[in-house]
Amino acid sequence: MDLGIAGKTALVCGASKGLGYGCAEALVRDGVNVVIVARGAEALEAAAKSLEAVAATHPAKPFVKHVAADITTVEGRAAAFAVHKDFDIVVTNAGGPPPGDFRDWDREAWIKAVDANMLTPIELIKATVDGMAARGFGRIVNITSSAVKSPIDILGLSNGARSGLTGFVAGLARSGIAAKGVTINNLLPGAFDTDRLRGTMEGAVKKTGKDIETIRAARQKTIPAGRFGTSAEFGAICAFLCSVHAAYMTGQNVLADGGAFTGTF
């Protein structure tokens, strides 16, 4: 399927690996120019080279630019927008807060979680949404978490901060920008085979005393698909939400979890 977005330009955050990289790769495969941002310079450089190889296979020859910066800071966002100003697509993504017991989290831990997983996406939306509306096209996809729908006890920091973003987006997506060709949706990953998942399982090891393979097998059994998802699968969903075909979808929480969530709605 031609997504109809070749030649558009996207900002993809946290794109050096994992789900962010999967999104960037899917967009590049469809001819989208990308500016990828992540904190780790070495991993980001490697990701950029891989994406450049993908870009070379598309007739549009999209460009790939990379910025080693912390997107959760004012300076990091300024660095990203210094490379390119007007984005048609923005994929927000920041590393999730660490797992743990809420009794151990102080105010600083909560502020850091809210800053990264709620306020940073809002700042990126604020910086781009009006330009998108003026041009008549815009796609914003926030990578959040399946925990928004089905909270995970050890991920309280994430549960709280991402739910706050979800509430904000629910209102904004349905405001005047919807009639100007701009959509804002949240993409909620369940268990994908990423460093984040491995970190969560290591937290479960510490909490339960069980070995990592036992934890992994038990987690997979809770997923009707019988496995963890891949970054490429996640990226394909993201790319569709960014496409011309998803123009009538906005303010939605799209769950990608292999069927793990058992709710009807």
Automatic annotation (TrEMBL):
Gene3D superfamilies linked to this entry: NAD(P)-binding Rossmann-like Domain
Protein's organism: Variovorax ureilyticus
A Pfam family that the UniProt record links to this protein: adh_short_C2
Record family assignment: Belongs to the short-chain dehydrogenases/reductases (SDR) family.
Protein name according to UniProt: SDR family oxidoreductase
SUPFAM superfamilies named in the record: NAD(P)-binding Rossmann-fold domains
